[in-house]
Amino acid sequence: MQVVICSIIAACGGLMFGYDIGISGGVTSMDSFLLKFFPKVYEKKHSAKEDNYCKYDNQMLQLFTSSLYIAAVVCSFIASLCCKKFGRKRTMQLAAAFFLVGVILNAAAVNLLMLIIGRVCLGAGVGFGNQAVPLFISEIAPAKYRGGLNICFQMLITLGILIANVVNYGASKIETYGWRISLGVAAFPAILLGLGSLAIVETPTSLIERGKTEDGLRVLKKIRGVEDVEAEYNAIIGATEAAKKAGNPFKNLMKRSSIPPLFCGTILQVFQQFTGINVIMFYAPVLFQTMGLGSNASLLSAMVTGFVNSLSTLVAIFGVDRFGRRFLLKEAAVQMLISQVVTGAILYSQLGSTNAISKPFSAVVIVFICVFVMGFAWSWGPLGWLIPSEIFPLETRTAGFFFAVSTNMICTFIIAQAFLTMLCHMRSGIFFFFAAWIFVMGCFAKFFLPETKGIPIDEMNDRVWNKHWFWRSFFTDQQQQSCVTPEEV
Ligand code: BGC
Asked: Could you tell me the pTM of the whole model?
């Protein structure tokens, strides 16, 4: 029970992250916001002559969305050092503090500079939070439930997005200052994480790693609810000693045997973003307006996709430790590929430069976007965070996870910064571009990704990488035990 409560509190970091993802699309489609900060986009939006696909193509507008992620990249590096030196819990508290400052600057913004600086502080909060939370949960969770508990983080990301969509829908009705409400409500998740994190335990691994072995043992007994924790305690001690002997985690990442988790952890994040999910999460209202839907209908449709996203994440929570990671990834790749192709084909055949799509076709597009979001929500979304948090041995865990988090943020930045321009130039072709990526990632999941379901976090090298048909070649003969085929791993 203790573990579940701690996981849920920590996962409030996901709520902060999700709220930010969901809020920008709605805010950037509000007229009062555009008039104040982006008058040129406002003019373009209301000009009948403007090309459908190019209405929102503005670098500064994209910078509003993307600045957060570039700040998050830099901060996740500092956060990885913080996680190691001061622990996961303190890092989460710092996340909440940065985030609150960002919210205040944003909600009170009087000019573009204040708005962007606010976004940068929010980015710092997200960088610290996304580094500490998944690690925290993976370390306190028992192996059997690690997947499901870790996905609480994703669940709260999706709830954050959904709440943001609902707040945007309500706030858009308040003409002059609705956007300030949208941006200000982000304070709640930060306060929740800040206060909640005062009440949670530090992870036994982090305590032991920092020399507090007695505290580590006490917390381990407390979170497992039993006195006999010797086996797990010894595994952590063993992993910590190995990590100490190995020295600097960043240097260790250069070793040949670190390549398999490093490659898989980071490529999963690239793939997660190149599914195209954030086109929908950031720009759904804008995309729906591009198709010719009114602004009310667009915000409403964004709420529907937000709802589908949250609900489908439940499938991952209950399925991931039962069906395994690879099954979910492969199934969803097929589902998402079909959805992107259908959406692209409809836009290609129906949406010209100045017309609107007919109602039935709009409905079909919205349905397929929901099918796409569903697939993402029970696979590449949560597993993009879960797998990198569980595949590194302790000696490279914080550093390796840093590469994963920052890759995610860089790719999110690229999509946020480039999508509206890509839409303007590639038009409906952009959906085929994402479909091609999905094909590649499906193949990767089938042939190269090992299964990590149910394996204790400190036994990954021995039981996963050393046994994988391809990745085992990165270990010395001594480390290798037996060879197995891809279907067995
Ligand atoms: C991704 C976000 C995405 C969200 C959607 C997360 O796992 O990292 O970029 O917006 O899922 O639910």
From this structure: 0.85
